[in-house]
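Format notes (please read before filing issues)

Several people have asked whether sequences and structure tokens are stored in separate files. They are not. Every record keeps both together, in the order shown below: the sequence lines, then the token lines. Line labels are part of the format and must not be stripped during preprocessing.
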Amino acid sequence: MEQVNKVIGAELLLFEKKFSDSVKSTNPLLDRIMRFIIRRKGKQMRPMFVFLSAKIAGEINDVSYRAAALIELLHTATLVHDDVVDDAMKRRNFFSVNALWKNKIAVLVGDYLLSKGLLLSIEHGDIPILQITSRAVKEMSEGELLQMEKARKLDIDERIYFDIIRAKTASLLAAACAAGAFSATGDEKASENFRLFGEKVGIAFQIKDDLFDYGQDNIGKPTGIDIKEKKMTLPLIYALQHAETPVKRRIIYTVKNNSTDKHKVKEVIDYVQQSGGIDYAKQKMKQYKQEAIEILHTYPETPARKAMEELVDFVIDRKY
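Then the structure lines:
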């Protein structure tokens, strides 16, 4: 991402130091775990959205750095807690915190990260930024619970699916963009514009994630992980909506009762591919991406806007 690095590369380097300092602890065990987490952090996509939103709307300042740190602290806390909920032993091909230090410690580490984010905002009086991000955490929890509730009956239609991913996945990216814009302007209207932009990017991002389960875009064989976990994603929902009743019943029965049978899962994947579910999901993904770009284009063309477009392309057109 050449343009992104050119526009906010220096800010990201400074952010890494600020973020590392923000999670330090006097507790030796906690400090060791924090160092472990920082060494294995991802691409810091959400801080990128914070800084670019701030730069498009105005100028990056100290509030922007704290907003980026808060978003990253909350995101990391949710990942640690998610690994406990999912009993996941790996995170980005490394052992997860719960795999190395067990669930009790992992839950407390997630709580620590959450509290550090809250204190960072409160101590500097960044209450509007805290409000933006707190709403996102609330929505993420609601989205996750709604998905778990619906997984029991597999009665998710397209409207509920979008409700789930808007809350579960898109809300934090939306908060990152809204917080970035507000940090630079203090303007609620600008913040809401960028929140909506981030929400649409986040929805497109999740649809792309759904498509990976069906082996799209040359990433290799279909994985069927979502089907094994009884997750109703957009390609499958579309296929079921357009299936004849006997076929629909058979597919739902397979997902409910044979989701660990790789041959049965392959039958579901093949049906979804043949039914047009993949093409429909791609169409919706492109629609949300285009709507996001249209919001972005209400702002003047600048290097920061060009970098944001590059970042959107990266997260939606990625091959993994």
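For reference, the curators noted about this record: The two ends are 16 Å apart (CA to CA). The chain has 14 helices and two strands.
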